[in-house]
Amino acid sequence: MIVSHCRQPHTGMPHVPVCWLLGLLLLMTGITASADAAAPSETVQKTGSLTKITIQGRVVCLHEELHQRYGLDMPTQHRHVYGFKTKDDQYFLLLENNLSGALFQDPVVRKRELILTAWLFPDSQIIDVVTMKSIKDGTIHDLYYYCVICAIRTAVPGPCMCCQDDVERVETPLELLDPSAEK
């Protein structure tokens, strides 16, 4: 039975398998996730079997979104499964990596409107984030973390890889970085 394979390794507690969530996402969006069906809000570039997309929207907990939209039965205390909801109501499942860690670890970033560039895996709505920008007051900002002691820039919050002091979140308007940058 599939449920027997869907237990957390250390607690033995059942959880919703990713394959079930992905299936629900595909059903609720009605999208086949092919590169040809890309929404107008996406910039699409094919590379090998992956598609590079740029999408704008917000990080959401997929459990809570499915509960709100479709009445999914959800425990009060649930583990968040983060996804990305675009402005045109498409949902993408986020993979956590060294470049997307801020989306999982920083609650301030999760509340921001964001522009993500990511690899879209074939036949899915699963993305692997490559870059992220924030939008504040209608202006696009470069978003990163910085250690003022070591002058090291990183994509994730937490301790500096050198001195172990906490890094600071930095959001710099793109026009300050490049006067010719478009808004």
How many helical elements?
5
Based on secondary structure, the structural category is alpha+beta
Distance separating the two termini: 52 Å
Largest sheet report: 5 strands, mixed, barrel
Dominant shape = globular
Residue share in β-strands:
25-35%
Q: Helical residue percent?
A: 10-25%
Secondary-structure element pattern, one letter each: HEEHEEHHEEEEEH
Strand tally is: 9
Rg (C-alpha, Å): 18 Å
Low-confidence stretches: 1-41
Q: How much is the average pLDDT?
A: 79
How many domains, in number, for the residues?
1
How are strands sequenced across the largest beta sheet? 2-3-4-6-5
Describe it for me?
- There is one protein chain.
- The chain is an alpha+beta fold and 183 residues long.
- The chain has one domain (32-177).
- Helices cover 19% and strands 35% of the residues.
- It is built from 5 helices and 9 strands.
- The chain has a 5-stranded mixed barrel.
- A hairpin with a 2-residue loop joins strand 1 and strand 2.
- The longest helix has 12 residues, at 18-29.
- The protein is globular.
Task: Give the structure's gist in a few sentences.
The protein is an alpha+beta fold. It has helices at 18-29, 62-70, 101-105, 107-111, 174-177, and strands at residues 43-47, 50-61, 82-86, 91-95, 113-120, 126-136, 139-147, 152-154, 168-173.
Q: What would the keywords be for this entry?
A:
183 residues; alpha+beta; five-stranded mixed beta barrel
Furnish the topology, listing elements before pairings.
Layout lengths: L17 H12 L13 E5 L2 E12 H9 L11 E5 L4 E5 L5 H5 L1 H5 L1 E8 L5 E11 L2 E9 L4 E3 L13 E6 H4 L6
Parallel strand pairs: 4-6
Antiparallel strand pairs: 1-2, 2-3, 2-5, 3-4, 5-6, 6-7, 7-8, 7-9
